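for the recovery benchmark. C-alpha cells below, seq after
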C-alpha cells in the first residue's frame, strides 16, 4: 500500500540525518501505525544499518546486529563481540562519516540486556559532534518513555527528535480506498480506525464483510487477538486493563459502574484508567464548561474505532466464534454496525469543529454536554464549542443521515434547546450546526457539515 502522510515526521528525521554534528532520534507509538515504514522511507541511501530486534538472548542479538552492520562495514561480523559495549564502541570508531544505525523494536534488546541504554548513552555522548546518527524505535510506549522521556532515564535529554507516531486521521482512509464512496469510507474507518496496517490488510478483500470475517472474527484471523498484543506491549496487568476496556466498550462509562462490575473500589482504578488514557486507548469526557478536576461528571469511552468495534462485537462472542461458523455470528451482529458507525461519526464530528469555519466563525475544541437545563430537566447535546473570540457559542447535533426538512427542524430545536442552557447567557450569540453523513444531501450553508467536509479537513 502507498505510504501516506507523515510529512512532518519525514522532514524532521531527514533534517536529523543531514546534520553535520550527528543526531540521536527516538520514535515510538502504537504497533502497526507505520514506524518501521517511516524509517525505511526516510533512511539515507548510503551507510545506513537498519536492524529489527526480536525476543532472543543478548548474544544472538549481537550476532544478528553485527551481520547487519557487516553489510556496511565489511568484516564487522567476523568478530564475536563479548558484550554490547564492545560492539557499539567498534561501530562508533569504524563507521563512515554520515553513517546511521537504526535499532527498531529497541525494547526487545533492553529486555535481554538492561545495561544497553547506559551503554548507548555513553556511545551517543562520545559521538557528539561527529557525523554519526542513531535512531531507536519501539512499539512499547511504556518502555520507550521510561528509556528516553523519564528524567531518570539514561538517554533523557539526548534526543534531537522524539516522535510519537499516532494513527492516521480519517481523511487519509479515502486515499487507501479510492473507489469507496464517502459513506463507505466512514464505515471502513469505524472498523479499522486510523491504523495503516489494518487498512493494508483490508484492501486485500473484495468487500468489507469478507475482511471483517476473515481478519477479525475468525479465530485464525490476523487481528482476532489484536487488543491482547497491544496491551502486552504496555500494561503490566493486562487482565485488569482488558477487563476495563471490555466494560467501557460494552456501555459502562462511569467510574462507579466500572468499579462495581469489577468488584473493586473506584480509587484502585484511577491509575490503570490514567495509563489507558496515556496510551490513547481510552478518553475521559467531561461536559463542556465543567471543571477538569471534577471526576464525578467524567465519562469514559474507547478512543479507537477498531478497539471499540472489537470489544463491542468480538469479545462478547468469542466462545460462539470458536464453536459456530463465523458467517452465522456475522449475520447476528451485522445489524448493530450502523449504531457503531453513528458513534464514530459523532466522535469525528466533534474532532472536526476546530478545523472548520461554521456560521462564518472559527471555534475551539468541541465537547458533548449533559446536565440539567435551567428548568431542571435533563438535557444532552452532541456538540458544544466556544468561538475563538469567546463571544459566541456553538451547539450541534450529529445524525448519520438527515433530510433537508429534518435538518431545518433540528436547527429550530437546537435554538430552543440552547436557550435553556445554564451557561448560554454568557455569550452574545448562539450558532447551531447539524452534521449529516447522508450522501445525497445538497448543502448550501456552512451550518450543515457533511462527510466530504470531514474528509477534506481531517488529514
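predicted aa per position
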Amino acid at each position: 500500500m502507498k505510504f501516506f502522510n507523515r510529512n512532518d515526521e519525514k522532514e524532521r528525521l531527514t533534517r536529523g540525518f543531514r546534520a553535520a554534528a550527528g543526531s540521536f532520534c527516538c520514535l515510538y507509538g502504537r504497533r502497526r501505525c507505520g514506524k518501521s515504514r517511516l524509517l525505511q522511507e526516510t533512511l539515507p541511501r548510503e551507510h545506513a544499518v537498519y536492524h529489527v530486534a526480536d525476543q532472543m538472548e543478548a548474544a544472538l542479538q549481537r550476532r544478528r546486529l553485527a551481520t547487519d552492520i557487516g553489510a556496511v562495514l565489511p568484516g564487522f561480523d567476523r568478530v564475536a563481540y563479548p558484550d554490547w559495549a564492545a560492539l557499539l564502541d567498534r561501530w562508533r570508531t569504524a563507521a563512515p562519516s554520515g553513517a546511521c544505525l537504526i535499532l527498531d523494536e529497541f525494547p526487545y534488546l533492553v529486555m535481554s540486556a538492561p545495561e544497553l541504554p547506559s551503554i548507548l548513552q555513553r556511545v551517543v555522548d562520545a559521538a557528539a559532534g561527529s557525523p554519526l546518527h542513531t535512531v531507536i524505535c519501539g512499539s512499547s510506549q511504556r518502555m520507550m518513555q521510561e528509556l528516553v522521556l523519564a528524567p531518570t532515564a539514561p538517554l533523557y535529554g539526548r534526543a534531537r527528535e522524539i516522535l510519537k507516531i499516532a494513527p492516521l486521521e480519517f481523511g487519509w482512509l479515502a486515499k487507501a480506498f479510492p473507489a469507496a464512496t464517502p459513506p463507505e469510507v466512514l464505515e471502513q474507518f469505524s472498523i479499522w480506525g486510523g491504523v495503516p496496517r489494518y487498512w493494508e490488510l483490508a484492501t486485500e478483500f473484495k468487500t468489507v464483510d469478507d475482511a471483517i470475517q476473515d481478519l477479525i472474527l475468525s479465530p485464525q484471523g490476523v487481528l482476532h487477538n489484536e487488543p491482547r498484543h497491544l496491551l502486552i506491549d504496555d500494561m503490566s496487568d493486562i487482565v485488569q486493563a482488558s477487563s476495563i476496556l471490555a466494560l467501557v466498550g460494552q456501555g459502562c462509562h462511569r467510574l462507579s459502574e466500572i468499579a462495581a462490575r469489577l468488584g473493586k473500589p473506584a480509587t484502585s482504578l484511577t491509575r490503570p484508567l490514567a495509563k489507558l488514557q496515556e496510551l490513547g486507548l481510552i478518553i475521559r469526557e467531561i461536559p463542556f464548561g465543567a471543571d477538569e478536576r471534577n471526576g464525578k461528571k467524567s465519562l469514559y469511552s474507547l478512543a479507537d474505532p477498531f478497539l471499540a468495534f472489537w470489544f463491542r462485537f468480538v469479545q462478547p462472542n468469542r466462545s460462539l466464534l470458536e464453536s459456530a461458523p463465523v458467517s452465522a455470528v456475522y449475520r447476528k451482529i451485522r445489524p448493530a454496525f450502523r449504531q457503531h458507525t453513528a458513534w464514530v461519526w459523532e466522535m469525528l464530528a466533534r474532532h472536526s469543529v476546530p478545523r472548520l469555519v461554521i456560521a462564518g466563525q472559527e471555534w475551539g475544541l468541541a465537547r458533548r454536554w449533559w446536565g440539567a437545563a435551567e428548568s431542571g430537566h435533563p438535557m444532552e447535546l452532541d456538540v458544544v464549542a466556544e468561538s475563538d473570540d469567546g463571544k459566541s457559542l456553538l451547539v450541534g447535533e450529529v445524525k448519520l443521515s438527515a433530510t433537508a426538512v429534518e435538518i431545518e427542524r433540528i436547527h429550530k430545536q437546537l435554538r430552543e434547546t440552547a436557550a435553556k442552557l445554564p451557561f448560554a447567557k454568557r455569550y452574545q450569540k448562539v450558532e447551531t450546526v447539524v452534521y449529516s453523513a447522508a450522501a445525497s444531501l445538497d448543502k448550501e450553508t456552512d451550518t450543515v457539515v457533511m462527510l466530504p467536509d470531514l474528509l477534506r479537513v481531517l488529514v
